[in-house]
Amino acid sequence: MDNFQHPVPGKLTTAIVICCYSDKRWDILNKAIEAAARQVPAADEIVVIVDHNPALALRLRAKRFETPLRIVENVHPPGLSGARNTGISVSRGEVILFLDDDAVSDQDLLATLVRQLEDPSVLGAVSAIRPLWETDRPSWFPDEFLWTLGCTYRGLHPGPVRNLIGASMCIRRDVFDHTGGFDSGLGRTAKALPLGCEETELCIRATKALPHGRFVFEPSSGSDHAIPADRATWKYFLHRCWAEGLSKASLSLMAGSGEALASERTYMTRTLPQGVMRGFADVLLGQPSGLLRVVALGAGLAATAAGFALGRTRAALKRPFTSVPARALEPVE
User: Fold this and answer.
1) The predicted structure's pLDDT at residue 250
2) What does the pLDDT read at residue 66?
3) Which position among 218, 298, 306, 313 has the lowest Cβ density within 10 Å, counted as fewest Cβ atoms?
4) What is the DSSP string of 4-18?
């Protein structure tokens, strides 16, 4: 807490929370921390949350960073939701910018998103999240499915959105004060199937509790999200689509199908058909990769739908997810 800046009248105080879990991401994690430290203007505090990896926490504490920051270990259940909830508990900023440990932010990212939150009706904002490919981008990979990599996908337009994308999102602390934290039954863990939708569930819960509020997409600044070679494969692509279907099934029971699937209906009826037309147009222009993208669009949709069908059946029989209790967000010393 000692590194927290004293509030300036009329200025929203800010915290950057970076969640990490793996030593294998050491190089990109350091780049993410350095980019967070270079924000202009600077954040009032930077907190790095280590998710149940004591060796990584020790390694971070032993490193000399040019900018003061705090290294804190996750005190909640393992996974991204628990780590973020720890970050909420130990930080003090009125606005919290959550960054993934493999997302390198633009220098003006924090300032750009905070400007959006100067409007009291804006509960949170998300930036552009650009894929940073470790290898050449696969010719078959469609822009419409960049969400499988935690990036901004084709079809997402500036302005109000149902939910934020976790790699680079800014949320008012008031949202957590009114609604609690991220659901620990959702969100990724180091070992489990890459389930998600914790940001979506939180945003739906927040707009129910604060109906005057909204979330927005502001693409004028952003982050580069590292995409390792093992994620630029058909196997990962289909696996991630399957997992998203499972997650959406559970979310639809928690939040109701109407709100949980509202954006997906537009995505299926507009975004995907437009992607198919672009793919065939490219084929007519002599670009065979257009046909591969059409195949990927169909395969991704089929895998997601199959995951949703199975997840809906399982979740209907046994509902495993419950909201994070308020006590999960009590201050952590």
Assistant:
1) 78
2) 85
3) 313
4) PPPPPTT---EEEEE
